[in-house]
Amino acid sequence: MKHALLKITGKKRQVLISSCMYIGQMVVGFTVGWSGSVLPKLQDSDQSPLSELLSEAQLSLVASLAYLGCIPGPYLVGWLSNIKGRKPCLFFGGVLVAIAYIILATSRNLAMLLCGRILSGFGIGVIGVTNLVYIGEIASTNIRGILLTVMGIFHTSGAILLYTAGHFLSYSGTNYVGVALCVAFTLATLLVPESPIFHILKGKDDAVIKSLHELGRSEDIDKLLAAKKEFRDSTATKDWIELFSLRGNKKALLIVVTINVFQHCSGVMVVVFFAGKIFDMAGSEIESNISMLIIAAFQLTGSVISPFLVERSGRKVLIIVSSCICSLAMFLLGLYFYLNQIGSTVIDGIKWFPLVILILFFIGYDFGLGIIPNALIGEMFTTNVRSIGSAVALSASWFAGFLITTIFGSVLESIGHIAFWIFALTCLGAVFFTIFFVVETKGKSLLEIQDILSK
After folding, report:
1. How far apart are CA 452 and CA 101, in angstroms?
2. In which element (H, E) is residue 289 found?
3. Model confidence pLDDT, tens digit, residues 30-77
4. Torsion of CA 387, 380, 24, 195, to 10 degrees
5. How far apart are CA 200 and CA 230, in angstroms?
6. Sequence-separated (6 or more) residues with CB below 8 Å from residue 54
7. CB–CB of 194/85 below 8 Å?
8. Which distant-in-sequence residues (6+ apart) come within 8 Å of 218 by Cβ?
9. Could you give the CA distance from residue 386 to residue 383 in angstroms, rounded to a whole number?
10. How far is 310 from 323, CA to CA, in rounded Å?
């Protein structure tokens, strides 16, 4: 395969390289969805590997701790990727998550579970940010949006693999599937080349020219070499200063942090983490694992739509339409629980309604709000601060996700349907923020995007 990869040039090479990265995105999707499939097993005395069943508070901690683990990963990458390269960081992330799943598969107590979850979060934090930066740096302008949004398809595919494994396999078996997926990604990272931007940072002009020729980006050689002094003068201290001092970077940071926080505050992760609880409260007779597998299959529909539209309709339109659908879905889900709370007989014949609403939610989420904010991270910021800017944006959104998933269980019991209406308002907030603040990046080079942000 390596020799075949060397013979392929141009955009086909970009697609093949990105395909290796997409395995890593499957690892991220598998890990993010882990709680939705595995927590029910931990609540079942016949399937749990633990001697005692966990309390609700402990289950919430196990579910949300991966988010906390995600936060330091991007900062490590922001420093290490400019010293050792993007490729070693990808390999390192794959190894970390593989070790985490081995720990989870062999867990016999709560401490091992927590250790495995926080390590898996750390690993996907490394993979997630490096994937975005790496694909954003190797891709041609006219297909960059497509390559970045296709990541959503494989994120969803990772979730589908999880729910399928969770339905047919034991607790340990499900985690060993995660180990196998991580090993596949780690081996795939050995086949990809280093980013041309890293070669610039190291002053390897010949390697830059060769890399861009192989990627079919010969027209970008002069532009990148002309900017090489800016890249090479980069230092960790200077990069942090420029992130918060340059107008373009400050504007980019505001946009990507805010829209990514909106993404995680849309209610998506609480639905994934607490699927069983939600379906139980709704009175659904369908097993939660099957329900989530059905939802994940429809998620794939939304993920597939986005790459076809992102370079036609643009990023802003997709986020706006997607957020409107998510807001409507969360409002209707809250309405269902309100009617259930007051004992309305209307819901007696529509126990299937929450499943249909969540299918609508995830289709809408996955063609816009769930994908485009991450794509924007890979497109904004000056080159020397792209890694740390991405780290700040992702860690802010992951911290928001950690807080929401940690408190959601008790919040749902306290205010019930109102929780979903809050998510509906959050999605509506994403609509207005996108209209007034998000910059359209369709068809623009990374340098052109910076020019727009700097005005």
Report:
1. 43
2. helix 288-309
3. 998 898 788 888 888 889 999 888 887 788 788 878 878 888 887 887
4. -60
5. 10
6. 42, 43, 62, 110
7. yes
8. 212
9. 5
10. 15
Residues 6+ apart with CB under 8 A from 45: 53
Distance of CA 277 to the CA centre of its chain: 23
CA gap 305, 149 in Å, rounded? 10
How confident is the model over 120-171, as pLDDT tens digits?
999 998 998 899 889 988 988 888 888 888 888 898 899 889 988 988 899 9
Token match 């349907």: residue?
417
Other Cβ atoms within 10 Å of 190 Cβ, number: 12
CA–CA gap between residue 127 and residue 148 (Å, rounded): 14
Long-range contacts made by residues 111-117, C-beta under 8 angstroms, separation at least 24?
113/42, 113/50, 113/62, 114/61, 114/62, 114/65, 117/34, 117/62, 117/65, 117/66, 117/69
pTM: 0.79
CA atoms within 13 A on the CB side of 277: 21
| DSSP H or E run through 429 | helix 417-437
210 vs 256: CA distance, rounded Å: 32
DSSP state of 219: G
> How far is Cα 453 from Cα 382, in angstroms, rounded to an integer?
10
8 A C-beta contact, residue 131 and residue 188: no
